[in-house]
């Protein structure tokens, strides 16, 4: 990725709704050039989509946790597929170290997060889990 593309992506991460003309001014490029680069980055799959980030007050009703998961190596694909079916699992990453996967989960109540953690622990191929409730998010990019 070119340096100017990386700067464009950084600006879009900060505000994906920023007008193209404003992006062009910040990058010292023509508006049409910025539009073409965004289209190319989308076509190439560098930009896979856009999202909405809620304010802390809008998100306050949600309980979030990080779940570290150790899997049976022969069943890791099955664990991933099963967790993907759970809408409360917001993200899943493969990691190195003691654990194999880290999931970020989100529910509305402590009872629901408890039930979800039990469901994850019972999933076929999960050997062990360790969970931490997220108290606050210091920053997100």
Task: Give a brief rundown of this model.
With 141 residues, the protein is an alpha+beta fold. 42% of the residues lie in helices and 22% in strands. It has a 4-stranded antiparallel β-sheet, with helices on one face.
Description:
By secondary structure, the protein is α+β, with helices and mostly antiparallel strands. The chain has 2 domains: 3-43, Arc Repressor Mutant, subunit A (Orthogonal Bundle), CATH 1.10.10; 56-134, Lrp/AsnC effector binding domain/regulation of amino acid metabolism (RAM) domain (Alpha-Beta Plaits). Helix content is 42%, strand content 22%. The protein contains 6 helices and 4 strands; from the N terminus they run ααααβαββαβ. The protein has helices at residues 3-14, 20-27, 31-43, 56-59, 76-84, 110-122; strands at residues 63-71, 89-94, 101-107, 126-134. Strand 2 and strand 3 (101-107) form a beta hairpin. Helix 2 (20-27) packs across helix 3 (31-43).
Describe the protein's topology.
Layout: H1 3-14, H2 20-27, H3 31-43, H4 56-59, E1 63-71, H5 76-84, E2 89-94, E3 101-107, H6 110-122, E4 126-134
């Amino acid at each position: 990725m070119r340096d100017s593309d990386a700067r464009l992506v950084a600006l879009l991460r900060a505000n994906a709704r920023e007008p193209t003309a404003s992006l062009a001014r910040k990058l010292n490029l023509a508006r049409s050039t910025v539009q073409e680069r965004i289209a190319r980055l989308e076509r190439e799959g560098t930009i896979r989509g856009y999202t909405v980030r809620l304010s802390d007050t809008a998100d306050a009703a949600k309980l979030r946790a990080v779940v570290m998961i150790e899997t049976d190596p022969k069943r890791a694909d099955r664990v991933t597929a099963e967790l993907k079916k759970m809408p409360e699992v917001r993200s899943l990453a493969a990691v190195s170290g003691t654990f194999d996967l880290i999931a970020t989960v989100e529910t509305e109540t402590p009872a629901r997060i408890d039930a979800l953690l039990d469901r994850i622990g019972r999933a076929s191929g999960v050997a062990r889990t360790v969970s931490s409730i997220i108290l606050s998010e210091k920053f997100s990019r």
